[in-house]
């Protein structure tokens, strides 16, 4: 039975509870947004590390230190296992963790879905041709990810499909031209099919792009 006294007490504490809950919710959202920004920053560092032929593979581990539910971070951890520990078994284990994370999430991004498909073809099935095509699909949609193109190139390089390597790189010229890393990859692609004059032209464009970025 609700008494007048109960209503009186409720009129005092319910507003206080709602106010505290609102503050907590806003604080939680703020922390989550900050975490998301930190994860995106480290993901970008990881991708740039790959583009620069760097050795900071532990950036994949750093992503998971910030957000242990990151699907992309878990996939990058599989690259860490390959590059540092040279363990395909460990890489597959991290990939399976990414699949588990996907099953717990209500929704995933296009990048997450395509990345899972690409790494599945690469790590689980050894189908490098399919992996290359899926990485290319990922590179072909905004924001036209250079890392995805780099991985597509790697897949086709490993199976000796140099003509396809050049073809996919040229198909993204309109979207990626003017980005130094892209011209480096296009130069590599031309070199692999023996078109050295075009390879050299792309090298010169790299310096031109860098000059334009500085000035």
What does this structure look like?
The protein is mostly helical. The protein has a domain of 67 residues. Helices cover 80% and strands 0% of the residues. The longest helix is centred in the first third of the chain and has 48 residues. It is globular, with a radius of gyration of 24 Å. The mean pLDDT is 88.
Helix content: over 70%
- Oligomeric composition of the shown chains: single chain
Q: Globular, elongated, flat, extended or rod-shaped: what is the shape?
A: globular
- Helix-strand pattern, N to C? HHHHHHHHHHH
Quick one: biggest sheet?
A: none
Distance between the termini: 77 Å
Strand content: under 5%
List the helices and strands and how they pair.
Elements: H1 4-51, H2 59-66, H3 71-83, H4 88-104, H5 110-124, H6 128-139, H7 146-158, H8 162-171, H9 173-176, H10 180-192, H11 196-214
Helix pairs in contact: 1-2, 2-3, 3-4, 4-5, 5-6, 6-7, 7-8, 8-10, 10-11
Give keywords.
single chain; 215 residues; 11 helices; 0% strand; globular
Concise synopsis of the structure shown:
The protein has helices spanning 4-51, 59-66, 71-83, 88-104, 110-124, 128-139, 146-158, 162-171, 173-176, 180-192, 196-214. With 215 residues, the chain is mainly α.
